[in-house]
Amino acid sequence: MSDDGHRTPGLSIRPVTEADIQAVVDLWDEAGMTTYASADEIVEEVTTKMARDPDLFLVGEVDGVVVATVMGTFDGHRGRIKRLAVGRDHRRVGMGGQLTAELERLFEARGITRIRLEVWAENVGGLAFWEHRGYTLEPDIRYFVRNLGGSSDPC
Ligand SMILES: CC(C)(COP(=O)(O)OP(=O)(O)OC[C@H]1O[C@@H](n2cnc3c(N)ncnc32)[C@H](O)[C@@H]1OP(=O)(O)O)[C@@H](O)C(=O)NCCC(=O)NCCS
Prior knowledge:
alpha+beta, globular, 5 strands, binds coenzyme A, single chain, Aminopeptidase, five-stranded mixed sheet, 4 helices
């Protein structure tokens, strides 16, 4: 179940804290989101993000254990969603939906009227999730990237 009104029993959602850093990195590892960088670089990424829009970087906890994350960012124009991850043992009970609903509520409270996000084309589950939540694929936009400073960062 993933209706906004249907709360997954035991899930509490709150902004990330420094004490969560390792749990967040472990979840991202499990979700295959950290293959592009070293462990230290990922920790640095979490720490840097926590200094910006910390209220939009959320974790979901069950029994005091972090089992889900989502990172919202605001560029002054649009809201962007990154790093939605739910631990394997906790999927398909609505947690991803609830974290996203909470982030959408926070975006709306800031006056943000449109959200953008990227999904790897092969991520069939991710695509199905966003479609289920009412997000639509934008057929008229192509996504350009350019690395700086000699970086070979693939994402
Ligand atoms: C994608 C992800 C966040 C979904 O989290 P979740 O908590 O399992 O999602 P929900 O339970 O809220 O799912 C809501 C609905 O989305 C759809 N959905 C979610 N995961 C799906 C999957 N793997 N395949 C097909 N549909 C899926 C279903 O319609 C589901 O409703 P249902 O369970 O009643 O059928 C989770 O699978 C995950 O962490 N994946 C790895 C990381 C990732 O790909 N993140 C997204 C990056 S864009």
